[in-house]
Design a protein that fits this description.
Elements: E1 11-17, E2 23-35, E3 38-43, E4 48-51, E5 54-57, E6 62-67, E7 72-77, E8 84-96, E9 102-115, E10 121-124, H1 126-135, H2 140-158, H3 166-178
Parallel strand pairs: 1-9
Antiparallel strand pairs: 1-2, 2-3, 2-4, 3-6, 4-5, 6-7, 7-8, 8-9, 9-10
Length: about 190
């Protein structure tokens, strides 16, 4: 794991994998900088994300916090078409690799989501969590820790406590948009 970070505006990758090492989501991003919460990376509108069997292009700009703790990544969207403001991937070993242009993590299925509107905030993908805990053999101590974290994050998101509030992420979204990066034609 490297302490080295790229210069702000540098293109990089955030690569998720599953517990068994199989590839999961790969997001093309840019490094934005760091604050007291950790490192922020951004995905401009029109930049791709892909995993085996699925792909999408970011409909709106989003920023992801790679926190100093290694058990989640927080993504905040601006003007998402379905109102999704916050999406937290619970993970394991969410960290920078030895390559300063690559952040990695193990996707642990559970997510905390906040949408603007009546639906609000909830823990998502409990069915996938249950299925994969058997398939991949998640250790009981990992399961206990992440189940508790999911509930804690759900409450913190609901309360909009920093960094899960709009005030913390919006300057990073502004910084991303100020880069004026073009959509990817190959996306």
């Amino acid at each position: 794991m490297s302490d080295e970070r790229p210069a702000p505006g540098t293109e990089m990758i955030f690569q998720w994998r599953k517990w068994d090492g199989s590839p999961h989501w790969r997001h093309e991003c840019v490094y934005l900088g760091a604050d007291e919460w950790g490192d922020w990376i951004g995905q401009p509108t029109g930049w791709p994300s892909a995993r085996p069997g699925a792909a999408f292009v970011a409909a709106t700009p989003n920023v992801t916090l790679v926190p100093r703790r290694t058990d989640y990544a927080l993504t905040v969207n601006r003007d998402h078409p379905r109102g999704m403001r916050i999406y937290i991937d619970l993970g394991w070993e969410v960290q920078w690799s030895d390559d300063p242009l690559l952040a990695t993590g193990i996707d642990m299925d559970l997510d905390v989501v906040r949408v603007v509107g009546d639906r609000g905030t909830w823990v998502d993908d409990r069915d996938e969590w249950a299925e994969h805990s058997v398939r991949f053999g998640y250790p009981p101590e990992v399961m206990t820790a992440l189940e508790a974290l999911a509930l804690d994050l759900e409450e913190r998101v609901r309360a909009q406590a920093a960094p899960f509030d709009d005030v913390t992420a919006d300057p990073w979204l502004d910084r991303l948009e100020a880069l004026e990066l073009a959509p990817r034609l190959d996306a």
